[in-house]
Amino acid sequence: MFQDNYKNRxxxxxSIVVILFILVILKIFFIQVIQYDKLNDLANDLxxxxxxxxxxxxxxxxxxxxxxxxxxxxxxxxxxxNQISNKEEVASSLxxxxxxxxxxxxxxxxxxxxxxxxxxxxxxxxxxxADEINSLNYDGVYLLKESKRNYPYGKYLSHVxxxxxxxxxxxxxxxxxxxxxxxxxxxMIKYYxxxxxxxxxKSSSYTSPQEGLSxxxxxxxxxxxxxxxxxDNAVSKYSPEQALIVVADPNTGEIxxxxxxxxxxxxxxQDYNLETINRNLPIFNTYEPGSTFKVISLAAAIxxxxxxxxxxxxxxxxxxxxxGSRIKCWKAGGHGAExxxxxxxxxxxxxxxxxxxxxxxxxxxxxxxxxxFGEKTGVDLSGEENGILFKVENMGPxxxxxxxxxxxVSVTPIQQVMxxxxxxxxxxxxxxxxxxxxxxxxxxxxxxxxxxxxKRQVISEETSxxxxxALENVVAKGTGNNAYINGYNVGGxxxxxxxxxxxxxMEGNYIxxxxxxxxxxxxxxxxxxxxxxxxxxxxxxxxVAAPIAKSVLESSVDILNIKKSNxxxxxxxxxxxxxxxxxPDVTGMDKVSARKKLTExxxxxxxxxxxxxxxxxxxxxxYVKEGDKIKLMLN
Length: 635
What we know:
Elements: H1 2-34, H2 36-47, E1 48-53, E2 60-61, E3 67-79, H3 87-98, H4 102-109, E4 116-117, H5 127-134, E5 141-150, H6 158-161, H7 173-177, H8 179-182, E6 187-192, E7 205-207, E8 214-217, H9 221-238, E9 242-248, E10 255-261, H10 274-278, H11 281-284, H12 294-303, E11 313-316, E12 319-322, E13 325-328, E14 336-339, H13 340-345, H14 349-359, H15 361-370, H16 397-404, H17 413-424, E15 428-430, E16 435-439, E17 446-449, E18 454-457, H18 461-477, E19 491-501, E20 504-518, E21 525-532, H19 541-560, E22 580-582, H20 591-598, E23 603-607, E24 613-617, E25 623-625, E26 629-634
Parallel strand pairs: 2-8, 23-26
Antiparallel strand pairs: 1-6, 2-3, 3-4, 3-5, 6-7, 8-16, 9-10, 9-21, 11-14, 12-13, 15-18, 16-17, 19-20, 20-21, 22-25, 24-26
């Protein structure tokens, strides 16, 4: 009996030992095979140290490949506290070089971390400071490559491009909107250290950073430079509260140029307040548009066959009474008898009240919304506003009347540009956009491209053609006369909008605007100019904004290769304006006939003898001031 118990005990102990041995084997197998990857990663995390290397952001270029946002290489300071034995000495030296607080620096060096980035004073260091730190040769002090964003054109296009923070993250504009594409993948230097944090020699490896993708914009920097120049001139001349210009292709929605004042330098964004940085006025600002909005009412009335521009007449006595409210024309005493083409040409408010009444509030507001007002355009920038429209159910006769000539509604400049574009391009409302394509920075392969997005057709081509003709008359013979360009047919509309403060219209404080396009018969470019409360000048859109738009359009002729027109409406001059006329071709004519043809507008000077003109200067179709001399060479 005793012997059996003894044998059982031995067997039990033996079994336990075998089981334990099997468990140990299984545990070893589990650790070495099943958990190998996990434990290996944990060991690497425990012993390895990663020194980060910032990746370059993708380039931003204009439509022709000109670089608008690039990267420059700077240096950042990181420390490995366990590798620094003389912390007080190192803290003292670094704080002096970086002009920072000693106690703050010492806190960095004594932190219980494997790697400490000296932020912000140790970020994006100049080469001089980096060399000074490097010359100290301290253990545990490392200088690493860091990428810094650079904008070669400074303040130009600043609200559109935006800016990048110290951590290389886009914080506004396209830098923010397309940040996930522009941001690259950081690299690193990886090494192993011992238990005391000391680096193990010859243990490092290098992972190169991957540059972000590049953006190719719709912007043309040549047009952008013109915009910036004109805005600077306007600020210098008129000291406005704000100013803006937008240039676009009316047939696609591509933005060719956009800027506003005040602006900022994206390279030194920290020197400006957030209000200046974040307010991209062409998409953010909302205000009553004034008479530029009449383009929408005109298009709606023509499309609905509520007016015949040539046969319908209106007598403008200087004002019109709507439900007891007197709505005045800008011209004292009115324009008298007019066709509705004259109503448009003269920007006659009472005449547009009639158009609004003929349309009715439901139809008028349906077109206002079809043209894109009251909603965001969808431009690829953050911060866009909707604008404000009357609710149809709350509109009475007065609200209908004022909406017809652009008062009482609130719109954004980008809505104005796209709405008028739809009115003149054949009736198509497009989504505005700024990025044409996204590409690989090494291979230049286009990874994603953007095409025009048609939202809807608002009016017919026939209606659009009549709108273009009417707006060409505005420039050639009406309130937009100061935007006229000799040799080219320009269309446009002026706007003089009284500003509102605390629900009351302000006296002598206007937003002056002009929207213009060319060629008027087949538009290739549209420009919108708005100047807020200019000083020292009579406040009319045709006086202030139209000449600025003319300069932008005139300078764009060569850039966009716009041809001279053969179908322009004959210009009508005011008495005080200098007149220009095209020079007729008189080569091959006898000198008597040539003289007779030229002296209607010019004087003549002969060179040589004979009866036939073989050469003339200036050449045919050149625009010359009335009374100037035309030189003729005879055979």
